Amino acid sequence: MADFHEFYPLRRHNTFGFDARARFAVHVRSEADLSAALADPRAEGLPLVVLGGGSNVVLTGDLDALVLLMEIPGYQVEATSEGGDAWLVTVGAGENWNVLVNRTIADGMPGLENLALIPGTAGAAPIQNIGAYGVELRERFAGVRAYDRQAGAFVWLDLQDCDFGYRDSLFKRAGAGRYIITAVTLRLPKGWQPVLSYGELARELDGQASPDAAAIRDAVVAIRSRKLPDPAQLGNAGSFFKNPLVSATQRNALLQAHPDLVSYAQPDGSYKLAAGWLIDRCGFKGVSDGPVGVYGKQALVLVHHGGGTGAMLLALANRIADTVQARYGVRIEPEPVVL
């Protein structure tokens, strides 16, 4: 029988540090733990919530739910990688993402360096299709092992099955609540080439002609450390808003009105606007609204100074989004999941 904890405090399980309790919580350290928790009669009728590092959630109150604290370990280089064009690395859903990035680089398997220092666990990475500095998870992805609650069985979902989009996936749309990821298999190319398309990253590397993966990782860590606060010191979930996508026509009109607009061309002809720039230009950088606010070094980051609630943070986020829409005609959307 699974070890259920009643009225379990979740403050340590969300990087904003909001106080909330779960009706029941279970530490899931194996697939057997997961199966036992789902079969337990105490879980009957309760909604299910899965938490990894809690770095992409906003808890707005107590959860009348069964919360699965995903802590499954594991790291294995698949034997089928030998002789192929990529290393296949399978990791448990509970593995720390940044630790994984460092380990693969140390083991001579580059490819994740642009995604260094992203908080959270490996199992959460596909849900959000995490990305940074020109690389998205889907470019380094083979598949996931997950429990399909509808089928009542463990299944394999490959790249196509997961239907990735910008900070989006099957797990946030049609598969929301259906699949519980227990392991992730990454595909790290043996014919590795550095991705230096972001000017900020290239500048940090100071014109190095052929930086290796460790050098790129160090540059990414340096940039993120300057821009983003440590959740252990100041509650946050990293970048709070997605960079909005707009048509070339809308981007060109905005550029005429705002010549310093920051935008990035996309392969399909659309443009990604820098949400941080939009928020900054609306005067929100460094603004405090009681116990919550906007980080003074990066307008894309919302912070919790302590003593606040998720509802307070969402009210600030909505005010920011409304202001950006009124000024620029663009709606920015939050990245974290609201519970």
Automatic annotation (TrEMBL):
A UniProt-annotated Pfam family: MurB_C
EC top class, as a word: oxidoreductase
EC numbers: 1.3.1.98
Cofactor: FAD
Pathway the protein contributes to: Cell wall biogenesis; peptidoglycan biosynthesis
GO CC annotation terms, alphabetical: cytosol
GO molecular function: FAD binding; UDP-N-acetylmuramate dehydrogenase activity
Keyword Cell division: yes
Reaction(s) catalysed by this chain's protein: UDP-N-acetyl-alpha-D-muramate + NADP(+) = UDP-N-acetyl-3-O-(1-carboxyvinyl)-alpha-D-glucosamine + NADPH + H(+)
Xref: InterPro entries: FAD-bd_PCMH, FAD-bd_PCMH-like_sf, FAD-bd_PCMH_sub1, FAD-bd_PCMH_sub2, MurB, MurB_C, MurB_C_sf, Oxid_FAD_bind_N
Annotated ranges, domain FAD-binding PCMH-type: 18-191
SUPFAM superfamilies found in the cross-reference section: FAD-binding/transporter-associated domain-like, Uridine diphospho-N-Acetylenolpyruvylglucosamine reductase, MurB, C-terminal domain
Keywords assigned: Cell cycle, Cell division, Cell shape, Cell wall biogenesis/degradation, Cytoplasm, FAD, Flavoprotein, NADP, Oxidoreductase, Peptidoglycan synthesis
Residues forming the catalytic site: 167, 239 (proton donor), 335
Any single GO BP term: peptidoglycan biosynthetic process
Subcellular location: Cytoplasm
Signal sequence region: none
Main location per the UniProt record: cytoplasm
Family classification: Belongs to the MurB family.
Function: Cell wall formation.
Database matches in PANTHER family: UDP-N-ACETYLENOLPYRUVOYLGLUCOSAMINE REDUCTASE
Protein name, per record: UDP-N-acetylenolpyruvoylglucosamine reductase
Species this protein is from: Cupriavidus taiwanensis (strain DSM 17343 / BCRC 17206 / CCUG 44338 / CIP 107171 / LMG 19424 / R1)
Name of the coding gene: murB
